[in-house]
TrEMBL record:
<protein>
    <recommendedName>
        <fullName>E3 ubiquitin-protein ligase</fullName>
        <ecNumber>2.3.2.27</ecNumber>
    </recommendedName>
</protein>
<dbReference type="InterPro" id="IPR003126">
    <property type="entry name" value="Znf_UBR"/>
</dbReference>
<keyword id="KW-0862">Zinc</keyword>
<dbReference type="InterPro" id="IPR039164">
    <property type="entry name" value="UBR1-like"/>
</dbReference>
<dbReference type="Pfam" id="PF02207">
    <property type="entry name" value="zf-UBR"/>
</dbReference>
<dbReference type="GO" id="GO:0005737">
    <property type="term" value="C:cytoplasm"/>
</dbReference>
<keyword id="KW-0863">Zinc-finger</keyword>
<dbReference type="GO" id="GO:0008270">
    <property type="term" value="F:zinc ion binding"/>
</dbReference>
<keyword id="KW-0833">Ubl conjugation pathway</keyword>
<keyword id="KW-0479">Metal-binding</keyword>
<dbReference type="GO" id="GO:0071596">
    <property type="term" value="P:ubiquitin-dependent protein catabolic process via the N-end rule pathway"/>
</dbReference>
<dbReference type="GO" id="GO:0016567">
    <property type="term" value="P:protein ubiquitination"/>
</dbReference>
<dbReference type="GO" id="GO:0000151">
    <property type="term" value="C:ubiquitin ligase complex"/>
</dbReference>
<comment type="similarity">
    <text>Belongs to the E3 ubiquitin-protein ligase UBR1-like family.</text>
</comment>
<keyword id="KW-0808">Transferase</keyword>
<feature type="domain" description="UBR-type">
    <location>
        <begin position="2"/>
        <end position="71"/>
    </location>
</feature>
<dbReference type="GO" id="GO:0061630">
    <property type="term" value="F:ubiquitin protein ligase activity"/>
</dbReference>
C-alpha cells in the first residue's frame, strides 16, 4: 500500500462511518470524492494535520477506497497460467 496524502496545515478531511473500521480513520477530500460514499454516513471536519488512510484495509472497507488506491487491478494472472499449460503439453 502506498501512503496517500500527508498534510500539515488546516485542511478539510472526511471520516466515513459507513466504511470505517476504526473511528479514527481519515480520508483526504480528493480520495473521499473519488471514492463511492454516496448515501454513507460521513463527517466533514477540519484537520490540523494527518494523513489519508485511503487504501488501508485495516481501517476501512475496500469499497470506500478511491479508484487510485483501492481495488487495484490485480496483475494479470494469465501469462503464468499459460506457461503452466504449455509445460503440461510438452
Ligand atoms: Zn485514495
Ligand atoms: Zn463510505
Ligand atoms: Zn487518500
Amino acid at each position: 500500500m502506498q501512503l496517500c496524502v500527508v498534510w500539515s496545515t488546516n485542511c478539510i478531511a472526511f471520516r466515513c462511518q459507513t466504511c470505517a473500521y476504526s473511528p479514527y480513520m481519515t480520508l483526504y477530500t480528493q480520495c473521499f470524492h473519488e471514492g463511492d460514499h454516496e448515501g454513507h454516513e460521513f463527517k466533514m471536519y477540519r484537520s490540523a494535520g494527518g494523513f489519508c488512510d485511503c487504501g488501508d484495509k485495516n481501517l476501512l472497507r475496500e469499497t470506500g477506497f478511491c479508484p487510485r488506491h483501492g481495488l487495484y487491478d490485480e496483475p494479470n494472472p494469465l501469462p503464468g497460467l499459460f506457461a503452466k499449460l504449455s509445460n503440461k503439453l510438452e
